[in-house]
Amino acid sequence: IKRIGVLTSGGDAPGMNAAVRSVVRAAINEGISVSGIRDGFLGMHQDRIIDLDRAGVNDIITRGGTFLGTARFTAFKEESVRREAIENLKKRNIDALVLIGGDGTYTGALRLHEMGVRCIGIPATIDNDVHGTGFSIGFDTAVNNIMQNMDRLRDTSSSHHRVTIMEVMGRHCGDLAVVGGIAGGADYIIAPEEPFVKEDLFSKIAQAFASGKRHALICLCENIVNADALASELEATTGIECRATVLGHIQRGGSPTAYDRVLASRLGDYAVRLLIDGVYGKCVGIDGTTLIATDFEEAINNPKHSHVNEYISLSNKISL
Ligand code: F6P
């Protein structure tokens, strides 16, 4: 391999830059050149590709987001579009790709792999919803963002003796809600892995307030129930004042934590080593502290390794 192309795709995640930096430096150390592809598959199709050298990735380890840019480019599902994008790689002598993102990125990578492009995927999404890794890059930073914001909500919620609902992201995965909720000391966590029974929430809140509790925090995963509607219904049913906050994209930004920087650095280097060893068509990940590689097909078609059930039973023990 003489030249590797690197791209970030899908929702940005803190630590993507650290992963790109690691890929660039690990490759250059082995005498391999690196091209950075702007805005994921979109930039690959539009031939927006730059040369990256060691200095080109200076000072990015501290930065959230992705300096290469990202996009959700649905037209990449079409084979003709992918063929045009592959022509751009050939024209620039890019003979392998490292693709950093979530399961949408892996699907694009699998299609490219099937068309003969050497690909390795690196998991990066705050949702932690990809198979083939215990943790994806960005999850830890987002959990910390959730925790810090829940601490802030606790201040105002306790001052006003209210119930506060905080909605977090996760798409259809409860990891952010459950792990962030435990870290923030949530009194009740609503995650898609466990059926949500409104009456259970309302009666637990009512009982807790009846026995002296003066405020409560609820951590809610997105795409389950409307946070404002739930707050109104809780207030109407229990008579206890309730407010809702949707944390939104704030949780996706900011400087990556040490954990995410180290994970990204390890996975970036591992991706390059696999390509050098002639291993393609896989995504890298972490199992405990061990680096692993999984076929794209397996990663896409299987549920992720989840810690959520174990965490839900913990949360049930230590919350309301
Ligand atoms: O996949 C990451 C994620 O942040 C999800 O948690 C969320 O549902 C989605 O992206 C939001 O997407 P967008 O960036 O298109 O608003």
TrEMBL record:
<dbReference type="GO" id="GO:0005524">
    <property type="term" value="F:ATP binding"/>
</dbReference>
<feature type="binding site">
    <location>
        <position position="103"/>
    </location>
    <ligand>
        <name>Mg(2+)</name>
    </ligand>
</feature>
<dbReference type="GO" id="GO:0048029">
    <property type="term" value="F:monosaccharide binding"/>
</dbReference>
<dbReference type="InterPro" id="IPR012828">
    <property type="entry name" value="PFKA_ATP_prok"/>
</dbReference>
<feature type="binding site" description="in other chain">
    <location>
        <begin position="249"/>
        <end position="252"/>
    </location>
    <ligand>
        <name>substrate</name>
    </ligand>
</feature>
<protein>
    <recommendedName>
        <fullName>ATP-dependent 6-phosphofructokinase</fullName>
        <ecNumber>2.7.1.11</ecNumber>
    </recommendedName>
</protein>
<feature type="binding site">
    <location>
        <position position="11"/>
    </location>
    <ligand>
        <name>ATP</name>
    </ligand>
</feature>
<keyword id="KW-0808">Transferase</keyword>
<keyword id="KW-0547">Nucleotide-binding</keyword>
<feature type="binding site" description="in other chain">
    <location>
        <position position="222"/>
    </location>
    <ligand>
        <name>substrate</name>
    </ligand>
</feature>
<feature type="domain" description="Phosphofructokinase">
    <location>
        <begin position="3"/>
        <end position="275"/>
    </location>
</feature>
<comment type="subunit">
    <text>Homotetramer.</text>
</comment>
<dbReference type="InterPro" id="IPR035966">
    <property type="entry name" value="PKF_sf"/>
</dbReference>
<feature type="binding site" description="in other chain">
    <location>
        <begin position="185"/>
        <end position="187"/>
    </location>
    <ligand>
        <name>ADP</name>
    </ligand>
</feature>
<dbReference type="GO" id="GO:0006002">
    <property type="term" value="P:fructose 6-phosphate metabolic process"/>
</dbReference>
<feature type="binding site" description="in other chain">
    <location>
        <position position="154"/>
    </location>
    <ligand>
        <name>ADP</name>
    </ligand>
</feature>
<feature type="binding site" description="in other chain">
    <location>
        <begin position="213"/>
        <end position="215"/>
    </location>
    <ligand>
        <name>ADP</name>
    </ligand>
</feature>
<dbReference type="GO" id="GO:0046872">
    <property type="term" value="F:metal ion binding"/>
</dbReference>
<dbReference type="InterPro" id="IPR000023">
    <property type="entry name" value="Phosphofructokinase_dom"/>
</dbReference>
<dbReference type="GO" id="GO:0070095">
    <property type="term" value="F:fructose-6-phosphate binding"/>
</dbReference>
<dbReference type="InterPro" id="IPR012003">
    <property type="entry name" value="ATP_PFK_prok-type"/>
</dbReference>
<dbReference type="GO" id="GO:0016208">
    <property type="term" value="F:AMP binding"/>
</dbReference>
<keyword id="KW-0324">Glycolysis</keyword>
<comment type="pathway">
    <text>Carbohydrate degradation; glycolysis; D-glyceraldehyde 3-phosphate and glycerone phosphate from D-glucose: step 3/4.</text>
</comment>
<dbReference type="InterPro" id="IPR022953">
    <property type="entry name" value="ATP_PFK"/>
</dbReference>
<dbReference type="InterPro" id="IPR015912">
    <property type="entry name" value="Phosphofructokinase_CS"/>
</dbReference>
<dbReference type="GO" id="GO:0042802">
    <property type="term" value="F:identical protein binding"/>
</dbReference>
<comment type="function">
    <text>Catalyzes the phosphorylation of D-fructose 6-phosphate to fructose 1,6-bisphosphate by ATP, the first committing step of glycolysis.</text>
</comment>
<dbReference type="GO" id="GO:0030388">
    <property type="term" value="P:fructose 1,6-bisphosphate metabolic process"/>
</dbReference>
<keyword id="KW-0963">Cytoplasm</keyword>
<keyword id="KW-0067">ATP-binding</keyword>
<feature type="binding site" description="in other chain">
    <location>
        <begin position="125"/>
        <end position="127"/>
    </location>
    <ligand>
        <name>substrate</name>
    </ligand>
</feature>
<dbReference type="Pfam" id="PF00365">
    <property type="entry name" value="PFK"/>
</dbReference>
<keyword id="KW-0460">Magnesium</keyword>
<feature type="binding site" description="in other chain">
    <location>
        <begin position="169"/>
        <end position="171"/>
    </location>
    <ligand>
        <name>substrate</name>
    </ligand>
</feature>
<dbReference type="GO" id="GO:0003872">
    <property type="term" value="F:6-phosphofructokinase activity"/>
</dbReference>
<dbReference type="GO" id="GO:0005945">
    <property type="term" value="C:6-phosphofructokinase complex"/>
</dbReference>
<feature type="binding site">
    <location>
        <begin position="72"/>
        <end position="73"/>
    </location>
    <ligand>
        <name>ATP</name>
    </ligand>
</feature>
<feature type="binding site">
    <location>
        <position position="243"/>
    </location>
    <ligand>
        <name>substrate</name>
    </ligand>
</feature>
<keyword id="KW-0479">Metal-binding</keyword>
<keyword id="KW-0021">Allosteric enzyme</keyword>
<feature type="binding site">
    <location>
        <position position="162"/>
    </location>
    <ligand>
        <name>substrate</name>
    </ligand>
</feature>
